[in-house]
Every structure is written in structure tokens, then in C-alpha cells.
Amino acid sequence: MADIAAKKARPQYRNIDSIPQILSYRLPPAGIVSILHRVSGALLFLFGIPFVLWLLQQSLTSEISFESYRAAVGSVPGKLALLAVGWAFIHHAVAGIRYLLLDRHVGIEKDASRQSATIVLGTTVVLTAIYALKLFGAF
Amino acid sequence: MTTRRIVVGAHYGLRDWLAQRITAVVLLVYALVLAGAALFGPELSYGTWAGLFASVWMKVATLLAVIALIWHAWVGVRDIFMDYIKPTGVRLVLQVATVVALVGYALWAVIILWRV
User: Fold this and answer.
1) Which ipTM did the prediction report?
2) A96/B46 touch (CB, cutoff 8 Å), yes or no
3) What part of A 12-71 touches B (C-beta under 8 Å)?
4) How far apart, in whole angstroms, are the C-alpha atoms of residue A11 and residue A97?
5) Which residues in A1-21 are b (16+ Cβ under 10 Å) and which e?
6) Which of A41, A42, A63 sits opposite B46 (nearest CB)?
7) Which site in A39, A113, B66, B104 is 20 to 30 Å from A92, CA atoms measured?
8) Cα separation, B100 vs A73, whole angstroms
């Protein structure tokens, strides 16, 4: 009996559900791209879709609603929301292109995939920066 | 002879994997077309913007993109739930809520386009 009880309470050694470990673990570039792909996808679903649909509605319904759309995207909170959705879309799209190429067995070797992950991160930062500058009227 | 029912396994796996990629390409093309229209099109006013969405080709393209979007989002969000949400009941509730939200978004998009 004692044996069975001991068997039932087998300890589980799971090393991924410990917060300090997750926080101190240095992800390789491909891992950063991967988790950000998931985070950006979740953000687009939770906030991006309803926000963009609302903007589409305001911009298309009438000239009066078009003005309220202009006011919304012209305000600072509106611009920050657009920036968040913009980053999420840019990252999701650029990382997605990499995944499509990996599916075609392009660059699946260790070095090449590490390099392409770094390129994705760099491209996303540059495109998001350009978008942010345009959004806040730098050019 | 007995027929064994398959109660586990991911027979839908390949279909969803493929759908995720095809819808991704559709969304990428639509996003690039829209970005091109915004960057190189005429100055944005209500007239030009509503005029763009009043054309049949833009309505069809947008509806295709919406269908691709909700399908793509469904597969992606379901994958996230399958990875992180272990209790079956909680996962079912979240998945049903996701389907309801996505179908609602699609209907909302149809109504927006209908009125242009």
C-alpha cells in the first residue's frame, strides 16, 4: 500500500515552469523571434482586430465619422495604439515570411537559421522605427 | 472484425498547418496592396478612401482577407490554448469564446463593407 501511494505521488521534474529559470534563460535569436511571433499574434487577436475594424468603420461610414477617425488616429493614445498594433503586425509578418521560407527548407541549417532570425529582429526594429517616425510626424 | 475508433491524434493537423500558411500569404498580399495604396495613392480624404472601398474588387479582396484573417487567427489562438491551457473545460470555454468573437468580427466587417 505504501508503495502504491508513493508511486501515485511521483515528483515531476519540469524545468520550464519556474519563473526565475525562464527569466534568466538566454533565448537564442530564433527563440526570441518565436516567442515574439506568439506574443504579437495574441496582441493582434485581442486588440488589433477589434481596433482596426473600429477604425475601418469610423473611416468608411460617413464624412462625420471620418472626422472622428481622423481625431482618434491623431491623438497620442490613438497613435500609441497604432504603434503597438503596427509593431505586432510588422513582427508577425516578417517572422512569418521566415517561417514560410523554413517550410520550403530554405535556410534550415543552424548557422543560416540563426542568421535569418537576427535579420528578422533587425528588420522588424527598423521598419517599426520608420513607422513610428511617420506616425509621430517626423517626415 | 472490429473497427477501432481513433480517439486521439491530430488528423486535422496537416489541413490546419496548410491553411495557416495559405491564409498567411493571402493576408500578406492584401496588406502589401493596402500599404501600397496608402503610400502611393492620392491624398487620403473621405472621398478617395470610401471610393476605394466602394469598388467591387476592393470589397471582394477585403472579404477574402477577412475570411483568411479569422481562419488564421483561429488556428493560431487555438494553438496557444493547446500549449498553455491544460484543463479541458477551461480550454473549451476559451475556444468557444474565440470562435464567437471571430465570427462576430467577420460579420462586423461584412456590415462595414455593405454600407460603403
Assistant:
1) 0.88
2) no
3) 38, 41-42, 44-45, 49-50, 53, 56-57, 59-63, 66
4) 42
5) eeeeeeeeeeeeeeeeeeeee
6) A63
7) B104
8) 28
Residues 6+ apart with CB under 8 A from A102: A108, A113
Nearest CA in chain A to B26: A93
Length of chain A, please? 139
Cell numbers placing B54: 466602394
The answer to whether A2 and A8 are in contact (CB under 8 A) is no
Per-residue pLDDT of chain A (139 residues; tens, 9 = 90+): 555 655 677 777 766 666 777 777 788 999 999 999 999 999 999 999 999 999 999 999 999 999 999 999 999 999 999 999 999 999 999 999 999 999 999 999 999 999 999 999 999 999 999 999 999 988 7
